Structure formats: C-alpha cells, structure tokens
Write the structure tokens for this entry.
Amino acid sequence: MHTTNRPPAFSPESPYKRLWGLLTLGILIHLGFGWLLTFSVDEAHYAYYAVKLDWSYFDHPPLVGWVQWPLVALGAPDGLIRIVPESLWFISCLLARQLAYEIATLVPDWNVPRLRESAGLWAIGLVLLAPLMHVLAVGLLPDTLLMTLTLALMLVTLRLIPPIASAAGSTNLRTKPAGSISLWCLLGFLLGLAGLSKYTAVLPATAIILIVSWRFGWAVLWQPGPWLAVMIAAFMVLPVFYWNAQHDWISFSYQINHGAGGKWRATRLAAFTGIQIAAYGPLLILGSVAGVRQVLKNRAWIAGGFLLFFFIPFAVTAFLAGGGGSLPHWTAPAWLAITPFAANALAQRWHQGRHRLIRALIWIQGVICVLAFAVLFFAGIPGISQQHTWGKKNPIADLWGWETAGDIARQLAQKHKIPSISVSNWTLASRLAWYARPTPVYVLDNRFDQFDLWFGQIPAGSDSLFVNWSQMRFDLPTQAGRFESCTQLQTFEFNRLGRVISDFGFYHCRNWGAIGAPSDTGKTR
C-alpha cells in the first residue's frame, strides 16, 4: 500500500509557526477589505447568479452562483458572502504547501527533508506576495474556484500515479494505476466541479489525460477507475449542456467569440507579459524558471508531467492575449499550479546561500502589495479627488459607493412609482441589480447578454430611473427612439476621507420609444 508523503504537522515549536503567521496575515487582510469594499463589477454579477438561480448562465457555468446561494438566500451582507473566496484562498494555500512537499519527493535535488519542509513555507509566501491573488481571495470569480480545484486535481492525480524509487534514486513507472477506485471517483467529482466553474476547465483536464496516458499507456483503458471518473464528471456537467440546449447554445458561442478577440498582434502579447509580471510578481517567475530547469536537469519526468497544468493553460491564454481576448486573472490557476515547483527551487537556492536577489524581490513585491492595499483603503491616491485629472479615471472608485447608490435608486423608484432602473452599460447594471434588488435593471444597448435573459427588453412606453456614474458617464438617453424626456431627481457624491471619489445622477426618464435603441455611445462590454 502506498504511503503518502506528508509534511510535518504544525506546532508552535516548529518553523511552521511562521507559516501560520503568513496565513493569518492573509486572512486578516482579506477579511478587512471584504467588509470595507462594495462588490466589484464581476462579483455583483456572479452574486446575482444566486438571486436568479439556474442550471447555467450566459457568461459562465453555474457553480460560482450555486456556492453563494445559501448565504444570499439568508440575506447575508457582502462581507459574509466574501467568506467563500477567502476560504478558497486559504484552501489553495494549504494545497500548494502539500503539493510542494510531495513534488519534492519526485526530484532528487529537492528530496531532502529540510528543503521539503521549507518549500511549503515558500509556496504560501509566493501566493501571499502575488498581488492579483489577493483580488481573487476577496472577490469570487470562476477563476477563484478553478484555481483551488486545479491544485486539488493535481494532488489527486499525483496520488493516483505514485512513483517507485529505484536504487539509483530515479523514478520508474508502474504497469497499472495504483490508485483506488475511491481516488478515481474523487478525480471525477473534482473534474465535474471544475467543469461547473469555468469552461477552461478543459485545460487542466487535458493535462490529466496526457499525464495518465503517458504514465500507463493504453493499459489504462482496461481499468474501471478512469471510466468511473469520466462518467461522474460528465454527469455533473449535464446542467450546463441542458441549459445551453434550451438557449440555442448561446453560452458556448459567446465564450468562443469572446476569447477569439481580434487581429493577433505581438504588441498585445508583450503587454500581456508585462501585466503578468506585475500581477504575479517576478519572484514567482524566477522560482518557476529555476524549478523547470531543476526538473529537466534531474530528468524527473513524472514531476515534469505536472508542469502541464501550467504550460497548457498559460500557452492558450497567452495566444488569446495576442488577439486581445485575455484578462490577467485567467492565468491564476496556471500560476498556482507551478507554485509548488517555484517554492522548491527557491527553498533550494535559499539553502545554498543565494539570498540577495530573492530578498530584494521579496521586499519589492511586499512594498507593491502594501501600496496596493493603501490605495484600496484610501480609494485612490490620498489627496486626489475626482476633480483632479487622475481622479477622473480612478479605477479604485469602482469599489466604493455602490451600496448607497443602489439604496437611493430603489427608494426613488418606489417613491415615484417608477417600475425599473436603466443604465447604458452592463458594468453599471451588475452593481445596481445587486444593490437595488429586486427592482428590474435594463441595459440600454444593442448587446444581448445575461441581463436580457433576466429582465428582457424594456417595455415600449414605460418609464425608468436612469442612473449615470461620473467614472463612466453617458449622455442622457433622449435620442430618437429612446426616452421622450429625462428629469434629474437627485445626485449623490461619494466621499472617502474628505475627498469626492465619484458621483451618481438619478433621472426620471419617461416614455421609452417603440423603435429599437441605436448603438450605445462607444462604451462596450
């Protein structure tokens, strides 16, 4: 029977008390900002999935809404709902630690007790020092789910194909899978959850297929375990296919077109590379490069197979970036997948006394994270209000004021007996739909999206409360075929520490025209 390699248990007397210190620091940071900030664009959108519970959705599979449903149904505040992504971040850190320890046993240069123990600490440190990981730890996105599930899939796959150490210290291959039926079933369950999280779950699934087929060859097809895993995963993702079949496969079509982007350009790929370095940190990149080199040097092919969990999704995302169809957080699951390798490489370098560059990068990334937290807390650069040039396009303003604006919109609609709220862009609609619920929200553009499925088209001849926001201001919708007239009812300025960050305008717009609205004024999703 295979005995799983596990890192030493935590104890106050061990160096791992520092690990608990890092985890506690991360949790406190996330809890603080989780209660301080309003929902972001995507957070509010996915939280509303839980309000309109369904088998799947236009943008993504349903799990991101399902996991929030119990808290949303109980009327939990935003800070409590954010316990979900904060818990996933915590679990991801523990999984990265465990993987760092177990992968070290597959690489001779790393298979030293002292190095293995410190690698777990480095893994959590790398996650804590990556700025974008904190975004996903506070705001629940499909990628938050997928990054945790990717690490869980790696760990289960590793347990399914344990190596046998030869006399020479290398690793040999078994002739058949050593994993139990329960492990294969767990693999299928995790694959199903990944498929319910995001369509790009097909990428880590591809890595698993390649690893298992290389490891065991065609003989794996004669084992019942893999077939059970496939059947469980397929059954779990049936809701996504059922919903799409009922809606003309619009979700699949949207994701294909959304990812394709436009004409491929090398400059976009270069920009993507720069953003990745800033988002995840040069220390993780340094460790990743060193980790890959060590795996190749040791010819640790079993460990090397697990690098596919990084290279496949990262390569696909980088290619899509060249066409303009990529976002920085899409690579988060890939970077977490390579973190155990980077952690082992950095632990080895540190043990060898190569401290200078590593220490410098730790300080640089730590300062960047602290500055980012400060900007979040002050809602931008201290002393800069929206009247300043920089304040007019303050991206942090997006996380403040929406709860109050939603309350005002709902109260005005009730007071003036206005049946709906309307905006000119979906990014405004997501926050208002969440904070002004259950008032219907219409997006006054020609795009078909999830809001059309939730609320339909604004009825001809109806009135609506139009909401404008200073950071994404539109002309009043009184053009031909739109509203007959709009009258301002109220304005609201959001102040943070004595500075005006943004303002909202609320207008009673009357008699929506029967003619279809023209294209919106240049703001696109």
In short: Strands lie at 164-165, 171-172, 421-423, 441-443, 464-469, 485-496, 499-510. The two ends are 54 Å apart (CA to CA). The CA atoms of residues 26 and 338 lie 20 Å apart. The mean pLDDT is 88.
